[in-house]
Amino acid sequence: MRITVDEFRDRVARCTRLMEEERFDALVAYGSRVTYGSVRYLTGYEPWLAPEEWAFAVLTPGHGAGLSLLSNSPWDFWEFNRTQATWVSDVTVGSKWVEQIAARLPRTAQRVGLGGWAGFPARVLDGLRERFPHAEFVDATALIHKLRAIKSSAEIALLRRAGELGDLGAAALYESARPGATEREVVAQIDGAMMRGGTEQMAYWTILGSGRKTIASCFLPTDRVLEEGDLVQLDCGPMVDGYKADFSRVVIVGKERPAATVRLVETVAEVHERCAAKLRAGVRCSEIARTGLDVIERRGYTRENLFRSANYPDMVFMAHGIGLENPDPPGMLTLTNDAVLEEGMCINLEPILLDQQVGGARIETSFAVTSGDPIRLSDAPIRPWLASAT
To answer: Distance between CA atoms of 150 and 145, rounded to whole angstroms?
Structure first.
């Protein structure tokens, strides 16, 4: 299951039209192991061999090759993988970035858009400005995000397939998270199930923890032995052709059901359900966040129980866009994001609730937005503690 060459050509055509509207003579998209979405969206190629591997997609409508891919991946990779790695015919392997990009830009270029602006290498940008002193180099993030915000049927199918792999991971979690098992043993079952099911790689290490450790947003599995009544949190990212699932489920070990733990996970489950019912075209992202916050406050929790980060200390986060990257457009669904959901956007509902005495719980599922009810992209139950208690 892969994106077809015809779809890549359609992406380039749509990008070209947007470039004309923005008066861009060229677009240079930067990608690395961390932020590869824009390069992969246009070329199908993802830098993945090492942190220092970079790639640039250079789009110059009506000039030269039209679309070029520059990479410093090892030669042997291209020798054996080129036809699988990209549909682009003009590929250059090397690391003389300024010279390679400059050779493809029109000498008369006045306005050049830069994709991956936040991480675009300063030395490359400085070198291009020296080569093109009369050109304006502009952040093209909004243009790229507009392209990537609405998913095609093929993209949704890939996200659905990734969600199915997440379902396999959830099934392994529900089966293996038993008293006496260690966190590492549970992760081995989860990762094995997803790899056997067909994931090409994991978007990030499989996050799994138990007990109060789950109060953190990310944690590594250890040799801690699971006990009756433990809260166990999973967050995993199986990928298919670059598209990721970013999937979370929470379980309670054994048959004990501590009241505070049940209250926590049931609240998260209700938030997930209420937000999913609200998820449709025409709704603002902030409305989804408000819906979740209303449930949390009605059940006796406060904003202090929500996930926060140093960058966004009061963001009231409930969901995010998903696709080639995390987050994909429309970004974080928070009280301050008034972007309007559109049909074809793909959203990960991810309410996260924290209780210092119990731990943290999150339930995360991908949905495709429609004009009516959203399309759920994975099927794993969100309340496994009900079945396992009997």
So the answer is: 9
% residues pLDDT > 90 (the chain): 84
Q: How far apart are the first and last CA of the chain?
A: 39
Q: Is the dihedral of CA 73, 78, 80, 83 positive or negative?
A: positive
Model pLDDT for residues 224-261, shown as the tens digit of each residue: 999 999 999 999 999 999 999 999 999 999 999 999 99
- Please say if the pLDDT value at position 203 is more than 80: yes
DSSP calls for 77-142 = HHHHHHHHH-S-SEEEESS-HHHHHHTTS-TT--EEEEESGGG--HHHHHHHHHH-TTPEEEE-HH
pTM: 0.94
Domain ranges of the chain: 5-148, 153-388
Instruction: State both tokens at 265.
Output: 């996970």
CA distances to 178, 186, 268, 272, 363 from 296, in Å: 29, 30, 8, 11, 14
State the fold for domain 153-388.
Answer: Creatine Amidinohydrolase (3.90.230)
Q: Where are the alpha helices (DSSP H) in 137-281?
A: 141-149, 153-176, 183-197, 259-278
Beta bridge partners, 58, equal 28, 68
Is the CB of residue 14 less than 8 Å from the CB of residue 6? no
Tell me the CATH architecture of domain 5-148.
3-Layer(aba) Sandwich (3.40)
Per-residue DSSP letter, 336? T
pLDDT digits (tens, 9 = 90+) for 122-158: 999 999 999 999 999 999 999 999 999 999 999 999 9
Locate 335 and state its tokens.
């009280």
Would 5-148 and 153-388 be classified into the same CATH topology?
no
**Nearest partner of 292 among 324, 260, 317, judged by Cα:** 317
